[in-house]
Specification:
Blueprint: H1 2-28, H2 30-36, H3 40-51, E1 59-60, E2 69-71, H4 78-86, H5 92-99, H6 106-109, E3 117-119, E4 132-142, E5 146-152, E6 158-164, E7 170-172, E8 182-188, E9 193-199
Parallel strand pairs: 7-9
Antiparallel strand pairs: 1-4, 2-3, 4-5, 4-8, 5-6, 8-9
Amino acid sequence: MQKGFLTFQILIVISFLVLVLGIGYLVGNKSAIKYEFPNSSVERAISQSNIFKNDCNYKILKPAEYLPTYMVQKGDSLLRLSTVFLGSSSRINEIVNLNIEYYPNLRDDYELEIGQILYLPPKFAFPSSGYIWGYSGEIIDEADDFWEIRTVNIDKDPLDTKFYKKSETKYFGKDAFRKNDCVSIIFDGEDNSVIAISVQDPQINYFEPSTK
């Protein structure tokens, strides 16, 4: 009985020592555990600060920053707007695609209502799909046929995308755009072809949207 009781006491002492040593190890390595599992949002913010230039503006442009608008009048039709403002009766679908999010019925009946506010393609835009978008960011690579531009997505995370030059692409503020330039662009979302590219200037919007 005494031998068994002694063995039991020894096991209790050993267990207690193991527990104490384990707690001491965890406390002593608290900082190591902390940095082994960093906060992902903090980590992302740190990585972003290292890749964004302080003097560039990185954002998704609002339609009002690059698309002119028009208020529908009595007697208007998509055919008339396409012919008068875009110079061709064949560009109706561009107007439809620009406005389908706001007026879903345009896709089916092409009917306009007096007082509707429609977006139109910019006056300098070449014929496109009508899915026109805009970004501001930095050119991080450039070749004869494309610019690769760093901007942000809707979550403000970095977005690097190639946009393709065309002979009809309009240049504003400079005759050529190179790597490290801070730019704003509008492009055809169907094939990423650049409709227009401009320098970033807080005093000037080179795309000159207006209400007609």
